[in-house]
Amino acid sequence: MRISELKEKKITRRATGDFDADGNRIYDFFEYSLPYKNSLPNLNKQREVAKITDMLVFFLIFFFLFRQNPLVSFLYSIPSVIIAGSITETIWGSTLGKKLFRMAVIDDFGKYPDFLTS
Fold first, then answer.
1. DSSP label at residue 4
2. Average pLDDT of 52-77?
């Protein structure tokens, strides 16, 4: 079963105009299924901060180890994050920044994505 096909059962009750013998109101119960909400609040902010964390690591590597100027270090960090992120998401399901926020990348079947999908 796909994650996007998961359903969540909800039960609601609606008051009727009828009362039982003890004077208590009688309720009608309705059961319905909603799609399971699989996203978290503030997820986009966490993803942005995780990506900035990943870029910062590569920026510092190029800036201090390879002695590049800040602009070149920043420009080199962009493709490095894309390539290294795809590799680590395929193997471990997350990058360093995503590990800090306890996030994982999975496909609709709950598995790590392949390299091209990532």
1. G
2. 96
